[in-house]
Amino acid sequence: TDLLEFSEDASGVPEGNKKSTNKQGDKSKENTRKIFSGPKRSPTKAVYNARHWNQPESEALSAPPTLKTPSVPVRLSSKEAIHKDDGVFKAPAPPPKVIKTVTIPTQPYQEIVTALKCRKEDKELYTVVQHVKHFNDVVEFGENQEFTDDIEYLLSGLKSNQPLNTRCLSVISLATKCAMPSFRMHLRAHGMVAMVFKTLDDSQHHQNLSLCTAALMYILSRDRLNMDLDRASLDLMIRLLELEQDASSAKLLNEKDMNKIKEKIRRLCETVHNKHLDLENITTGHLAMETLLSLTSKRAGDWFKEELRLLGGLDHIVDKVKECVDHLSSDENEEKLVASLWGAERCLRVLESVTVHNPENQSYLIAYKDSQLIVSSAKALQHCEELIQRYNRAEDSICLPDNKPLPHQNVTNHVGKAVEDCMRAIIGVLLNLTNDNEWGSTKTGEQDGLIGTAMNCVLQVPKFLPQEQRFDIRVLGLGLLINLVEYSARNRHCLVNMETSCSFDSFCTGEGDESLKITGQIDAVQALVQLFLERERAAQLAESQTDELIKEAPTAQHDKSGEWQETSGEIQWVSTEKPDSTEEKDKKEEDDEELDLNKALQHAGKHMEDCIVASYTALLLGCLCQESPINVTTVREYLPEGDFSIMTEMLKKFLSFMNLTCAVGTTGQKSISRVIEYLEHC
């Protein structure tokens, strides 16, 4: 309509205006040509015209409106238009054509299936990626690949054909990586520990490389998991222990480089658990020994007991025990004293673990250097008996009115704790060496003053210990005495003829009736019988008190929180509101019941301790009576009415307890049965 109106009005326009209009039309034609037909370009180039792909093509290619007059029409032929559109970038292809397909079921139980399909030629812009991994899988794969790359790179630097500097740097780098628990986990999961130490098999020929290898072993031993050692790795560890610390016997880079390596190892060891490591004494032997002492048969496997003996590891540990024991008599400084006690205790813990149920290791240690371990252990036990009186912790068992322990912690307590731990480790090793072993019992009993020290551990030493530690040391001492006298007539003779003091908690020390007072030294048999009788009476008293607590147990009371009521033909529970006084009363009753339960548990624990001490003492007295009518007469004199039935009854209860808690047929049960049978015929 606008065009028609424009054409009608154009007839009245002067001719000059028409010419100007014609000129404007010519300019519009020129603009149209510039838009639709640009200059010819190279066929290898493309021009990108930013347009939305979803925009209709008619709108994308629409030209600006032009003014047309009837006298000068503007028309373009189809061929000319096609020729002028050659240089324009075409819009992207339309979206894929989706075809909807409906599958009609052929069976009555089937359903109609509707699917959308797209032809392959219509989805040229799409790429289908199959088997896409999960995010966690990708992360795990990346970690494994990073570990593989690191270990391959570091292993290439450990090979023997590499320069010595490169090998040392690679070992330190690997140890730094192993300080991270995640890397140690990867290293063990892929079984690379043995391969690393196999590559470093020649490290003992170079002092600096051996130091780096010992540091790597120490870092790997910081885990509580298995170290995954094999025989070759353990052999390398033992060889590192045997290295001379003299610089002239090894190949040194120079003093400056060695100090640099030690400083790196010192900083590395500060990042891990290093309670027993002397950071000022970073040497190959020290690091290798700390690594060996951190191992036990439980962590390294049962083969560890056998290989440690065959490779000579037990020799180094026994020598280390002797070195620490020698320092006990010379060290006046408390810090050095604690270090010696800790060193001896850790060595003895390893020896205790490798001698349990292992007769080969027991015999080897008894014979090594004319029973050097037994001699050192006897000396250490005597030193500990003297030290525990000087650094006793008995006052720590005193509690304040609010049942809180005394807060002070000083060096004396620190030393006393080390002495107690060392005593338990010493007796533990001696128990293994003398268990069902006449040779070990005889060799141990031959040590000067050992039987007397063991008697003091039963009767006198517990008074210098905290309350919770007294039962342990007393039972350990009784067990050692039982092993010593069970198969050795010489030891039985020594114990029977020995004089000692009464137990520190015995009635004969002045408590009770004046007629029970015994001053001075008494026979060891009399002291043991007195200990048995007191513990047996204490067990009976605790048992009767527990029975009374059980009899006085409150009966079940009716629920008074509500009552049943019948309303509209139904029975319902209607709760009643309790006054505050009733709630306080109920709370008080609950507290009283909890207090009674705690008292019952305390009585039960005390009863168990008294029964075990009495049973061990009766077993020791029974072993003394074996094959010796004179000893039978001696023991009978101190028993009430000379009757052994009180001892046999206690041993039968103990045997029943062992049958419930231990495997049937063990050597301990056989020994108890033999003693019971012997005492019943006395």
Question: Would you spell out the secondary-structure blueprint of this structure?
Answer:
Elements: H1 2-9, H2 15-36, H3 57-60, H4 78-84, E1 98-103, E2 113-118, H5 135-158, H6 164-178, H7 181-189, H8 193-199, H9 207-220, H10 231-241, H11 255-269, H12 284-293, H13 297-300, H14 303-310, H15 313-328, H16 334-355, H17 359-367, H18 372-390, H19 411-434, H20 438-445, H21 450-459, H22 467-486, H23 489-496, E3 499-500, E4 522-523, H24 524-551, E5 562-567, E6 570-575, H25 580-625, H26 629-638, H27 645-661, H28 667-680
Antiparallel strand pairs: 1-2, 3-4, 5-6
Helix pairs in contact: 5-6, 6-9, 6-11, 9-11, 9-12, 10-12, 15-16, 15-18, 16-19, 18-19, 18-21, 19-22, 20-22, 21-22, 22-25, 24-25, 25-27, 25-28, 27-28
Short description:
The chain has 682 residues and is mainly α. Helix content is 60%, strand content 4%.
Per CATH, the architecture of one domain is Alpha Horseshoe
In the sheet with the most strands, the strands line up as 1-2
Percentage of residues in helical conformation: 55-70%
CATH topology of one domain: Leucine-rich Repeat Variant
The oligomerization state is single chain
Tally of individual helices: 28
Q: What is the molecular shape?
A: flat
Distance between the termini: 142 Å
The amount of beta strand, in percent, is: under 5%
What number is the mean pLDDT?
A: 75
Largest sheet: 2 strands, antiparallel
Family: Belongs to the WAPL family.
InterPro entries: ARM-like (IPR011989), ARM-type_fold (IPR016024), WAPL (IPR039874), WAPL_C (IPR022771), WAPL_dom (IPR012502)
Organism: Mesitornis unicolor (brown roatelo)
Keywords: Acetylation, Cell cycle, Cell division, Chromosome, Coiled coil, Cytoplasm, Mitosis, Nucleus, Phosphoprotein
